[in-house]
Amino acid sequence: MASLSSESLTTDSRVKAIMIYPIKSCKGMSVSEAPLSPTGFLWDRHWAVVNSNNGRACTQRVEPRLALIHVHLPPLAFSSSPPPPCSCLVVGAPGMPELQVSLSKPSLKSDGVSVWEWTGSALDEGDKAAQWFTDFLGKPCRLVRFNEDSETRPVDPLYATGFNVKFTDAFQFLLISQASLDTVNEQLKEPVSINRFRPNILVDGCESFAEDLWKQIRINQSNFHGVMLCPRCKVPTINQEDATEGSEPTATMMKFRSAKALEVNTTTTKYKGRVYLGQMLVCEDNDSSFRKIISVGDIVHVEQVFSSYADVAV
Description:
The chain is mostly beta strands. It folds into two domains: 6-20 and 156-311, M1 Pyruvate Kinase, Domain 3 (Beta Barrel); 45-146, no CATH class. Helix content is 10%, strand content 32%. A hairpin with a 2-residue loop joins β14 and β15 (222-232). The chain starts with 12 loop residues before the first strand and ends in a 9-residue tail after the last strand.
């Protein structure tokens, strides 16, 4: 594959949409602006549903019905720290009563909570929340919150060091361009929505797949580093509206978005057989005061690019 030139990447790209996912693997929220925290956007993957028997975080890979759970945070949750005592995370799902989870930290703890390679303790949201998720998923579950007062979860040091996340799979942010989604959809018999790919930042105004080679970008004075192309699991094959599973878009993307097709430098065999869409990022401007904001409409300044796909990590 031919290398993309720097000129093709340094365009007037802008942030088209911002999505956060308060509960890991549940529906996301579209917001007009989001404060940065030392682990990503404020409230992103702040909670996780875990299996009561083993403490493992539940995801759509095993529990597709998580896609049907929608969440809402009040605007004050993004503008006031700490949020007002009456503020709640509101959770809903088909056939279920509304669940309200206080944004005030609970005192109950759950030990042995695990997400991939990480294991630690988390704050437990109590029996009412546990029963709600147990009833909906049909297996014993609990809702837990990342305990940032006592726990840290570093990103994979093979790709980046000095950065932490909460219950996110890998890195702090996932960025995808609208042009990339459009190009994928041009190859499909039935187009898919961006929610299949669960980005945090959707940008517009660049060429398709330009973000693949973005090594460093700046948005509203905050500096982001491209860490690796995002290897896609089975989640993009799950319809986010009804939780049904299929083979697309992965089957089609395998023809032009696999490591072999892209001729990327495969760092490990961990992601063998995957397709790739989006660039995973970390932000060097760790701000625990949440004063730095990314907003829809912000210009994406491309500061550095990889010279070719051979330099991009996967």
